[in-house]
Specification:
The complex is a heterodimer of chains A (200) and B (209). Chain A has 200 residues and is an all-alpha fold. Chain A contains seven helices and no strands. Chain B has helices at residues 4-22, 26-65, 74-91, 98-129, 135-150, 153-158, 162-171, 173-197. The longest helix of chain B is centred in the first third of the chain and has 40 residues, at 26-65. The radius of gyration of chain B is 25 Å and the shape is extended. The chains are: A mainly alpha (200), B mainly alpha (209).
């Protein structure tokens, strides 16, 4: 048996273990599920060690003697006090440090979430489609404005937003299903072509 | 000391970050962001990952000790974790090594199969949820069917203009609804960030004193 064939058989075995869940929950699926978590964790810890710990902790502190980086390393170690009942509060310091990034959320949120979207919505209405987009954007926004009761003519107007959202959710659902289907086709192709060799 | 200093770190650091976004000054752009923030985040990051590893191991340990339902499978978690991490630490993560072999022939097939399984469950959930009980559900279902059929040759065989209709759905009503939602999410995100910066939202500090 060639190396490639053996590798494909291992992949096929675990693929079938996961697919076996379609029949019902069974020991093969349970085993594969836990193994997947373990392997993913093992992979991510090695990647974290090689891409973060070595270049940003080990090399600067131990090899280049950039002692200032001892402080963030100690700050990071404080995360581990999360498991202590008495000293658990120390883990708030690294959490607080990681939270300062929310400051970036204010300008980034205003720019990407509000200004760019509003600018794209406020273009000259030259076609029917542009009018429909503007109408949809306004009605969807108003649909989530709860300070005014959705009743009467206003209620009917904001109700248009609901229809827009239903079409949008349907489109998103369709796209997601198709993405999953293409993954499914990929797995079946692997089994039929690479493992069984039925398709050349 | 236990809550006030972390809160001050968030407020002061957050305000500096807001200033960083608006000011092109060297102290903010280079000294604060490149020389201080990025190396500090990267140097403290591995310990956060370690916290996750310890937490997961403790959970499985407790499961085995308590003989909780399906406790035997926790050994497979340990097997996968120990073998993969040892393969990576001893043999390295380069292509051709044991860790990459495990990644390509164990992790990748299983994770892509896991995601492909969702196709079946989404279809069955969709059947249960959208059985066209109302006009709104019917509209959602029709939009989904049009978008799905337009991507396969069968859809074009049924009606040749289906891809055009699908593209219109994606470009007009879908875009309008996504834009409205994006603006709402943007406003909500900014409001939440401001609540954290002003010290109104403190749930990230956890309970206790």
């Amino acid at each position: 048996m060639s190396y490639e064939m053996m590798s494909n058989l291992v992949g096929a075995f675990f693929t079938l273990c996961i697919f076996s869940f379609l029949y019902k929950d069974n020991p093969f699926y349970q085993m594969a599920e836990q193994l997947l978590v373990g392997v993913s964790l093992g992979y991510s810890i090695v990647v974290t060690y090689e891409r973060l710990f070595i270049p940003y902790v080990w090399q600067p502190i131990i090899l280049k003697h950039t002692w200032a980086l001892i402080f963030p390393a100690i700050l990071g170690m404080l995360y581990l006090f999360r498991f202590s009942r008495k000293l658990g509060w120390l883990s708030r310091y690294p959490i607080a440090f990681s939270m300062i990034g929310v400051g970036m959320g204010v300008p980034a949120g205003i720019h990407a979430g509000i200004l760019v979207q509003a600018r794209q919505a406020m273009v000259p209405i030259e076609t029917l489609n542009l009018f429909l987009i503007l109408l949809g954007t306004i009605t969807v926004l108003l649909y989530f404005f709860f300070s005014k009761a959705h009743s009467g003519a206003y209620g009917k107007f904001v109700g248009i937003g609901k229809w827009y959202m239903m079409i949008g959710f349907g489109a998103s659902f369709g796209m997601t299903v198709m993405a999953r289907i293409s993954l499914l086709i990929g797995r079946i192709q692997f089994l039929v072509s690479d493992v069984l060799g039925l398709i050349k | 000391m236990k809550k006030t200093i972390p809160l001050m770190i968030v407020i002061l650091g957050g305000i500096i970050f807001v200033m960083y976004a608006f000011s092109p000054h060297k102290i903010l752009q280079d000294d604060f962001y490149n020389k201080f923030y990025i190396p500090w985040v990267y140097a403290s990051g591995p310990f956060a990952a370690l916290l996750g590893v310890i937490s997961l191991c403790m959970m499985h340990n407790a499961k085995i000790k308590r003989r909780a339902p399906k406790w035997q499978y926790s050994y497979f978690f340990y097997a996968g974790f120990i073998i993969t991490s040892l393969a990576g630490f001893i043999g390295g993560s380069q292509k051709g090594g044991l860790m990459m072999w495990i990644f390509e022939n164990v992790q990748m097939p299983m994770s892509s199969t896991m995601f492909s399984l969702l196709a079946f469950y989404m279809a069955s959930a969709a059947y249960k949820a959208f059985r066209a009980r109302s006009v709104e559900a019917t509209v959602l279902l029709v939009a989904a069917i049009v978008v799905m059929l337009a991507q396969v040759p069968l859809g074009v065989k049924i009606y040749k203009n289906l891809p055009v209709i699908s593209q219109w759905i994606l470009d007009v009503p879908n875009l309008a609804s996504k834009r409205g939602i994006a603006i709402g999410v943007g406003l909500g995100g900014v409001a939440t960030s401001l609540k954290i910066l002003l010290g109104i939202e403190r749930s990230y500090l956890g309970g206790g004193d």
